[in-house]
Design a protein that fits this description.
- The radius of gyration is 18 Å and the shape is globular.
- Strand 6 (120-121) and strand 7 (124-125) form a beta hairpin.
- The chain starts with a helix and ends in a 14-residue tail after the last strand.
- By secondary structure, it is an alpha+beta fold.
- Helix content is 14%, strand content 26%.
């Protein structure tokens, strides 16, 4: 193996570890913002100078065996694919990782729902029509949680088909995701070509009063 090849591999690995990493979307839980088998880029630079924030779509390590008992969304990769994933040439299979939207951060009171059927964060109702499916309810499951410091409350955009924080309230960790489990912020869809797009935080998370 030439010196140039080795150097290229080292640079690629460094970029994967510290700059950005590609992942497959494993399910329809984020539909139709993301759909199954989309390839997304999880960038890591933003969180070097700011905290994870409400509205971010994040890739995170399974915090408390959330994936246990579910069908493996992607076939286990072979040797060639494992090498490609390690150096960052190919997207990670998603094994052991999830993709959700951050609704609440440490210290937030997140409630479902108010009289108009909206989720509230610190008493401020969210207008989620920008990213939820048309006529979809924000949640069929009621909840009233105070997010612990250093943790996140996450939900899929396809609320009826997402086993997110709500589904794990009675389990270890209470449905909260430790910030340390976050791999990166999903910033864009990079494949297939007809779905390429940037992923930006919705306007509703910029409402005055959300920040405590």
């Amino acid at each position: 193996m030439s010196t140039v090849t080795v150097l290229a591999l080292v640079i690629t690995v460094v970029l994967r570890l510290f700059v950005a990493e590609a992942f497959y979307v494993p399910s329809e839980s984020m539909y139709d913002t993301l759909t199954k088998d989309d390839r997304i880029l999880a960038e890591k630079v933003s969180y070097l100078h700011r905290d994870v924030d409400r509205g971010d779509i994040i890739v995170f390590k399974d915090p408390a065996n959330w994936l246990h008992g579910e069908d493996d969304p992607v076939k286990p990769p072979g040797t060639v694919r494992r090498i490609g994933e390690f150096v960052g040439i190919l997207p990670r299979s998603g094994e052991g990782h999830l993709v959700k939207r951050v609704i609440g951060i440490g210290g937030d009171r997140v409630i479902c729902c108010d009289k108009q059927g909206r989720i509230t964060v610190n008493g401020i109702p969210l207008d989620e029509r920008e990213y939820l499916l048309k006529d979809a309810k924000p949640s069929e499951v009621p909840f009233n949680v105070l997010v612990p410091a250093g943790h996140l409350w996450v939900m899929g955009d396809n609320r009826a088909q997402s086993a997110d924080s709500r589904a794990h309230m009675g389990g270890p960790g209470g449905g909260f995701v430790p910030v340390e489990n976050v791999v990166g912020r999903a910033c864009c869809v990079i494949w297939p070509s007809d779905r390429m797009t940037m992923l930006r935080p919705p306007e509703t998370f910029k409402k005055p009063g959300l920040k405590k």
